[in-house]
Each structure stands twice: as structure tokens, then as C-alpha cells.
Amino acid sequence: MTFTVRPLDPSPDFLGETLLSDCELVHGWVTHPKSAFWLMQDAKLQDVEREYMAIAAHEHHDAFIGLKDGEPVFLMERYDPAHVELAGLYEAEPGDVGMHFLVAPTDTPVHGFTRAVITTVMQTLFADPATRRVVVEPDVRNKAVHALNETVGFEVVERIEKPEKDAYLSVCTREQFMAARGAIR
Known about the structure:
alpha+beta
């Protein structure tokens, strides 16, 4: 599977009768029952617009839409964990990059799709030579994402308490990712 990634456009501009704005699209994804760990189940469209406008304005946080054959299929966020999300919760190292991703909910899952998405996300992050490690903080209850993270090379470092959840701080070096990619081919 081949994906492309483009910046998320948080502007609520009218795009026509058949096209949704990025925030309208993401709103449908983050409020879907399958996206419970995204913690936005009760968000209104204005909440999503406000959140992604803030991310767009933040110097240490970015959001992207992932596309397959031109169709939006996933959301990716990149952040500097020394300044966002994990600031003060762990000892950030030079070259650490934080990441969140969300695959668009579907009623017709495709085997291997989510693994292909996280592989694309990791390739995108490691395309920057300054990235040494990718850092994530998934909810301790999210067993599916822990298993998925392990397949691309993440290792749990420690359990941390965040205001909104208990999480497993996990890291993946470039070398761990490359080794995992070789193992899953």
C-alpha cells in the first residue's frame, strides 16, 4: 500500500457540497466509537476546529492527513515531546519526536492496513535525519496499539501518569524501526 501525507488544513472554509473540510473529516473520525482512546468522543466540530487551529499555530506541534489514492484515511500528529504532551514527564533526548496517529474508522477493515499506516507514519518521521527516536504515550488500556507499536520496534520504557490517562511511555529508535521492518517483510 502506498500513502502520501499532507499538512492538515484547519480552516473551516467551505469546500463545496461534496467535500468536507479537514476538521469536518477529522471530527467524524475522533468522535467515532472505535476512536475512544483519542479522548474526543463528545467533541463538537468547533472543538475540533479549535484544537487543530491551536496545533497549526504551535511551533512544536503539527498535524497531517494521510491519503491512499488521494482519499483521506488517517490522521498523524508530530510534536516535540520536550515542549508538548510529555514536557516534564520524562527526560527528552535530542532528536526525540512525539507522534500520535489515528486510522479513519471503517466498517470494512483491510488486513494489514493499520500496520501499513503506522509504517508510513514512522517512515515520514524518520525521513528527517534529525529524528533519532519516536516517542509515544498510548493509554495503558489500549492493548491493540501496544501490539501494533511493538511490530514497528517500539519498546515500553515506563508507565507514566498524564492528566487525562495512565500511559506507557514507549520509544523506537531508527535502528529498532529498521530491524522491525526487516522482520515484517
